[in-house]
Amino acid sequence: MTRCSLEHGALQGATIACMTNSISTQLKREIMSSENPLLALIRDTRLEVHNRSITEIAELMRPQMQKYGVCLISGFPTETERYLELLEQFGEPLTNYSSLSDLDKDDPSTKINMVRYKRKKSDGPKSVHYIDGELKPHSARSWRLQRPRYFAMLMVDPGWRDMEAGLRGESVILSWQYMFEQLAQLDSEVFETHFARLSSTPLRFEANNVKEDCSSSPLCYPLPDAASRFDVGVRLKQDLQEKLPGLQAQFEDYEAYRASIDYLVAATVRPEFQARFPLNKSDLILIDNNRFAHGRCPITGEREVDGRAINNPRELWSVCVA
C-alpha cells in the first residue's frame, strides 16, 4: 500500500512528494503550486458521485484511500441506509457515541453520531457534538482499545454561511505525518525530545460520557504498513489537556509529559498544518483515523429572529468504522 508524504520544499512555500509513480505530472504541478499542500491534496481527491451505485462509489474511493488515506466525495444522498451501506464497504460501522452514553439519543441511527448545536442544559452530560465552539484536531474514539480504522463525515445541512471565514463551522483535517515531518525540520532537537516521549510513554484515559475498553498504548503508536518514520498513528483526545492532571500517577515525570502534550496540541492548531474547508450539503469525507485528525472551526449557535432565538440548523453525521 503506497502512502503520500507531504513535505515543505522551503519555508516560504510548500510541496507534496507522493510515494507513488502513478500520480500525473499535471497533478504534481497543481499540488506544488498550492499555498496549502494538504488542502490541495484533499481537493484533488474529490469525486462527483451523483446517481452512482454504492458499489461504484466504493470502487472510485478505494484507490484514493489506499494512496492518500483520505477521500472527499460530492453528491452523496443524505440517507442513513445508503451512508452505512457505503461505509460497510470499508469495514464495520461502530455503535455510535450517544448510544453508549447517557446523552440525549436523537441520532438518525445507532451507528451515526449527529453533530448539531443544542442549547446547553443546566445539568446532565454535554457532548462536544452539541457545542458551537471550536473543536481542536483530535482522533475519533481516541481512548478505545481497538482503534477505529476510518472516520466518516457526511454534511446534511451546512447551516448558516453568512459569517466571516473561520466562523462558519469549516471542517479541519490534519495529517500527522505531514505535521511531524515539518516539525522535525523546524524544531529539530525540541521536536525529537517530545516525539520520543509521546511515542514511548504508555497512556490510559477514558471517554467523558461512555464506557469502552481503553487502550494503554503511547499517544503515538507504530503502524504495520508505515511508509516512513513519521507515518505513525496518533490517538489525541479533544480535551486531553484538561484530563491530564487527573492522570498524573501514570507518569514518572508528569511535568515533562505535560510539556510534550502542550507542544503537540499547540502544533495541531497552527494554520499551516491544517486543511480548513467548508463541507457542502451531500459532501462526504472519509479519513484514515490513525493517520489523520479532524476538527471544526466555531459556528454561531443561535440567532434572534422575530424576537425569538433559533438554532443554527448545521447538521453533520459522523461514523467510526472498525
Write the layout of secondary structure elements.
Layout: E1 4-10, E2 13-18, H1 25-32, H2 37-44, E3 47-48, H3 54-68, E4 70-74, H4 80-87, E5 113-116, E6 135-138, E7 150-157, E8 171-175, H5 176-186, H6 189-200, E9 220-221, E10 233-234, H7 240-243, H8 254-268, E11 274-277, E12 284-288, E13 292-296, E14 302-305, E15 308-311, E16 315-321
Parallel strand pairs: 3-4
Antiparallel strand pairs: 1-2, 4-12, 5-16, 6-13, 7-12, 7-16, 8-11, 8-13, 9-10, 14-15
Helix pairs in contact: 1-2, 3-4, 5-6, 6-8
Brief synopsis:
This protein is of the alpha+beta class and 322 residues long.
Task: Write structural notes for this entry.
- The structure is a single chain.
- The protein has 322 residues and is α+β, with helices and mostly antiparallel strands.
- It is 25% helix and 23% strand.
- It contains eight helices and 16 strands.
- The protein has helices at residues 25-32, 37-44, 54-68, 80-87, 176-186, 189-200, 240-243, 254-268; strands spanning 4-10, 13-18, 47-48, 70-74, 113-116, 135-138, 150-157, 171-175, 220-221, 233-234, 274-277, 284-288, 292-296, 302-305, 308-311, 315-321.
- A six-stranded mixed beta sheet has the order 3-4-12-7-16-5. Strands 6-13-8-11 form a four-stranded antiparallel beta sheet. It has a two-stranded antiparallel sheet with strand order 1-2.
- A hairpin with a 2-residue loop joins β14 (302-305) and β15 (308-311).
- α6 crosses α8 (254-268).
